[in-house]
């Protein structure tokens, strides 16, 4: 069964995209998309056949080095991710080579989510846009051209020390090209389209980090591409 044939997913996506339209009509602008719950254990737990898809808007973007207020949040979580930059529109059913050619490049990202309730119901998760609050990005477009992950080392820095590391940023998320194809297919099923100029944040490259009450900053280094950081206030 396709993900979008699941009645829970269909109801959640319709509610989520209505929320997106409300925000765009109120003056926000599209930034791109996100995927979540791609790990096999979470697919099994939610009884879904593929990752869930959410949206990003410009109002959620935080410049690297900026600050995010966590006042009133339930359970703030940081997810160090790779942002895939889309250089041409991608239609449903795109093959591997078409999706690969659509990736203009990559850059580091940190998604900040608020885990307001346990992830148990796909409809509820999707309706609230997969807990999305902010995404931290560096300047402009991709920091590295193309879709290759060869030679990358990803490091998460918290409290001034290396906390986590991976040299395979696709191991925890699935391949970026496959994610591009999946997002294009899901969006098309609900009357949307993956467009040139958008980004997809592809999931946490290491297990997500619960932001501790005394924590004031997190950095994410993708060597030799770029380093980004975000500060927290309460």
SSE order = HEHEEEEHEHEEEEHEEEE
Strand content: 35-45%
Annotated CATH topology: Fumarylacetoacetate hydrolase, domain 2
Identify the CATH class.
Answer: Alpha Beta
Number of strands: 14
* Class from secondary-structure proportions: alpha+beta
Helix content: 10-25%
Summarize model confidence as the mean pLDDT: 96
Radius of gyration, Cα only, in angstroms? 17 Å
CATH architecture: Alpha-Beta Complex
Could you give a short account of the major beta sheet?
9 strands, mixed
Low-confidence stretches: none
Shape: globular
CATH homologous group name:
Fumarylacetoacetase-like, C-terminal domain
Number of domains: 1
Please describe what this structure looks like:
By secondary structure, the chain is an alpha+beta fold. Helix content is 23%, strand content 36%. The strands form two sheets. Strands 1, 2, 3, 5, 6, 7, 8, 11 and 12 form a nine-stranded mixed sheet that branches. A hairpin with a 2-residue loop joins strand 9 (153-158) and strand 10 (161-166). The chain is globular.
């Amino acid at each position: 069964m396709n993900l979008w044939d699941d009645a829970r997913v269909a109801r959640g996506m319709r509610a989520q995209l209505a929320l997106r339209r409300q925000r765009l009509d109120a003056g926000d602008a599209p930034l791109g998309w996100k995927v979540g719950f791609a790990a096999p254990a979470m697919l099994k737990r939610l009884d879904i056949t593929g990752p869930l898809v959410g949206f990003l808007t410009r109002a959620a973007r935080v410049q690297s080095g900026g600050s995010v207020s966590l006042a009133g949040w339930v359970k703030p979580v940081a997810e160090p991710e790779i942002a895939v930059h889309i250089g041409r529109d991608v239609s449903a059913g795109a093959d591997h080579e078409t999706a690969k050619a659509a990736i203009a490049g990559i850059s580091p990202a940190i998604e900040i989510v608020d885990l307001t309730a346990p992830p148990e119901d796909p409809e509820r998760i999707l309706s609230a846009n997969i807990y999305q609050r902010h995404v931290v990005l560096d300047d402009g477009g991709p920091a590295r051209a193309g879709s290759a992950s060869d030679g990358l080392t990803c490091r998460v820095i918290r409290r001034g020390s290396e906390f986590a590391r991976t040299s395979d940023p696709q191991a925890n998320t699935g391949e970026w090209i496959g994610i591009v194809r999946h997002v294009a297919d899901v969006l098309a099923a609900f009357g949307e389209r993956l467009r040139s100029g958008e980004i997809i944040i592809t999931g946490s490259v290491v297990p997500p980090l619960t932001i501790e009450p005394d924590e004031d900053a997190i950095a994410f280094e993708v060597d030799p591409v770029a380093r980004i950081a975000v500060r927290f206030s309460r």
